[in-house]
Design a protein that fits this description.
alpha+beta, 3-stranded antiparallel sheet, two-stranded antiparallel ribbon, 3 helices, 5 strands, globular
């Protein structure tokens, strides 16, 4: 009989308050340039670190429809909810 050992599973990476530009691009499955364009357009909010790096607030990713997928084993598994009409 097989028994599941939930303690041996690798915990899923948690998103903090902010992510790097590169990580935001990976999560949204877009290029870094697209992330910078969305920052410029005001669709993504950022903060600056003490060293001057720019990081994307996770809350603003959520406002664009990015939702972490529940019970996934992949760190890149997200669900993108796009309820906005496509641009022409």
């Amino acid at each position: 009989m097989l028994t599941a050992n939930f303690d041996s599973q690798v915990p899923e990476p948690q998103l903090g308050r902010s992510v790097s530009i590169e990580r935001a691009a990976e999560l949204m499955r877009v290029s870094r340039r697209t992330v910078y364009n969305r920052i410029r357009d005001g669709r993504l909010q950022t903060i600056r670190t003490r060293c001057g790096s720019q990081r994307v607030l996770v809350e603003s990713l959520h406002s664009l429809g990015l939702r972490p997928r529940m019970f996934s084993s992949s760190p890149l598994a997200v669900v993108v909810v796009n309820d906005r009409p496509a641009r022409s």
